[in-house]
């Protein structure tokens, strides 16, 4: 099984990778399957049922909107974030859905009654994963044409029911030059080859792309991250969703610019970068899933910290940063989870903090052991972090939490760089602990909005 850095870092739309990006991809997969099976033209009606966390917090995470856009053939990477709400409003006002319309002109138009045909089950779950959804298609006589169940397993990854009983990541039998599935294996390969963590990952990425394609792809991801930070630091007002959360990144950035040398406020800038991204995410803007949308601000913030405050930072460092972060993220994806609905926010913000810490240590010149140590510190001090979004929205505590994790990642990297890489708790042990902690965590603390801050803060 092989995972690419481009699986972990994908360009998408807010506010949630598991509740927005995944369901949009699943809905698009469903209508694409109708076309492939030759029954799209016969389809007279469709129905979507959302279960578990998708049903419990779907409205706050924009899941119905994502499903409608996906059924019309939109992709999270290419959907126009400026007109997406207008597209959804057209569907709701007209009661008409253009199946695969984004791909084949006007698509195949059918009647669609959202209250009766897009159903969120707040208390029912499917057995395989907390983020499950089933889609149905029928002909004019009501005869079933297709029924498929999909699971959004975190970070925008989607598997269908055929994957039940198998690994939660779509199997890829690509042969890698330096395959590793644990931190120990990663360090062993680094020591045997003399390669850095980012160089190991680069050699493995060459199984899919040329080095030039890898570099350009990662720099495109960096450009999207930069654009997201720039937008977030320039826009003000109230975030959508009903909580009336005020955007703060732009105003805070203005204040800091008047307070002299930015080097004196590096930690605050890292916080603002992260909050800017997650305010954009909360508004349904274009973000990079890194490794999830709920944690999308951490890596861009630390990467901006590197570019703006580390002498000698350049685009080669950006590429190395993202490769090293991808190597660490892969370990979390393979051996635990990056889904808040499965293991709580420790799997989202915790994983992102670990990835950013290790990546920063890499570009600061750390040894493989120091990189692994930084990643371990970043995760160890996020263990037990719950996912309890107020109102089911990716706003409170998510926006501030990304800012806190960005600073924590920088601190973890610096702590590791002060040592020689030796430490008592390995990255593998902390990943195993995170997985076990997630299994022990009550369901109400795993993206259901039925525990923690979600019930102790009045929505107003």
UniProtKB/TrEMBL annotation:
Keywords: 4Fe-4S, Gluconeogenesis, Iron, Iron-sulfur, Lyase, Metal-binding. Its cofactor is [4Fe-4S] cluster. Gene3D superfamilies: D-3-phosphoglycerate dehydrogenase, domain 3. InterPro entries: ASB_dom_sf, Fe-S_L-Ser, Fe-S_L-Ser_mono, Ser_deHydtase-like_asu, Ser_deHydtase_bsu. It holds the Pfam family SDH_beta. Residues 4-162 form the Serine dehydratase beta chain domain. Its EC number is 4.3.1.17. It comes from the Bacteria. It is an enzyme of class 4 (lyase). Residues 192-454 form the Serine dehydratase-like alpha subunit domain. GO terms for molecular function: L-serine ammonia-lyase activity. It catalyses: L-serine = pyruvate + NH4(+). The keyword NADP does not apply. Coiled coil: none annotated. Pathway: Carbohydrate biosynthesis; gluconeogenesis. Belongs to the iron-sulfur dependent L-serine dehydratase family. This is L-serine dehydratase. The lineage of its organism: Bacteria, Bacillati, Actinomycetota, Actinomycetes, Kitasatosporales.
